[in-house]
Design brief:
Length: about 260
């Protein structure tokens, strides 16, 4: 690693002030993405701002018809939350397949969303439920938040503090995961909340998570697997790598969407 200064704020305001003072700084949450690239010298931030001692940024809480999850809530905490299991078990099930126990006990929901890895699970849930990302400055709708691979609408000095998920009447997540990393080769999150029907896909798109409007339109008539039979997803814009071709991923999207709808 290159030399850097280490900061340990205890409030969001302190962290934001440090970001303003050190434009090249990086926030440290779980560290599963940041630390490896620093060790490989692919990133050399001038300062590390450790968010692990900031108060009031973790926990799962039901507020009316929404579930609010603090940005620093660990994956295992989300998966183990009985409150979340009672209200929206599909969302509680998402982090259970992330990585391994070591990853789930350190990784955070806010860090995952801010990093926006194209194979990460949480972006599919955030977009698939139409969540709102709350920062120290504003509220950002999920449809406006994810802007591309490893790219989001977050501005400099902006920090995710919590995520607000509307409770869906029906929802489910299915993924085809890499056997070693646990990352999604393809993951599909489906939800129905009144007339708002969403199908979000992770792991397949070259620009990261995306919605499938042709599925959503067909599901307005009936929220069931049969409604999307015969509707093909184009491989254009999908990833091709050593694990799967774009055509195979396009096929998997349909398969996993049907499984998710059956589960929902």
């Amino acid at each position: 690693m290159y030399a850097f200064t280490y900061h340990r704020p205890t409030t969001v305001r302190q962290a934001a002030n440090l970001l303003a003072k050190h434009p090249e700084a990086k926030l440290l949450a779980g560290g599963h993405s940041l630390i490896p690239v620093m060790k490989l010298r692919l990133a050399s931030p001038s300062a590390i701002i450790d968010m692990n001692h900031v108060e009031g940024m973790s926990g799962v809480e039901v507020k009316g018809r929404s579930v609010v999850i603090g940005a620093m809530t660990r994956h295992f905490e989300v998966a183990a939350s009985q409150t979340l299991k009672d209200v929206m078990p599909a969302l509680a099930g998402v982090p259970g397949s992330i990585g391994d126990p070591h990853v789930r006990h350190r990784g955070t929901i806010g860090g995952s969303i801010a990093n926006n890895d194209p194979n990460a699970d949480y972006p599919a849930a955030v977009l698939g439920l139409g969540a709102t990302i709350i920062t120290n400055k504003r509220r950002i709708l999920a449809d406006d938040f994810f802007t591309g691979m490893f790219s989001t609408a977050l501005e400099p000095e902006e920090i995710i503090t919590k995520i607000n998920f509307p409770v869906a009447k029906k929802s489910a997540y299915q993924k085809f995961k890499h056997p070693a990393s646990g990352f999604a080769l393809v993951g599909v999150f489906v939800s129905k909340r009144g007339s708002d029907i969403r199908v979000a896909v992770t792991g397949a798109g070259s620009n990261g998570v995306f919605r499938v409007p042709q599925f959503e339109e067909a599901l307005k008539k009936r929220f069931a697997p049969k409604s999307i039979e015969g509707i093909a997803v184009s491989p254009d814009g999908l990833n091709t790598d050593i694990h799967a071709s774009a055509e195979y991923r396009a096929h998997l999207i349909g398969v996993l969407a049907k499984r998710a709808l059956a589960a929902a």
